[in-house]
Amino acid sequence: MSRTLLVDLGNSCLKWAFHSEGPLQPQSVNYADDTLAQLCERLWATEAPPEKILVSCVTGETGQFADWCRGRWDRQPVFARSAPRFGSLRNGYRQPQQLGVDRWLALIAGHARHPGEAFAVLDLGTAATLDLVVADGQHLGGYIMPGLGSMQACLQRQTGLAEPVTMAAPLADGFGRDTDSAIQLGSRAALLGMLQQGLAQFQRMTGEVPRLLITGGDARQLMPELDRPCEWHPALVLEGLLRTVEES
Question: Which candidate, 240, 215, 214, places its Cα nearest to that of 228?
Answer without folding.
Answer: 214
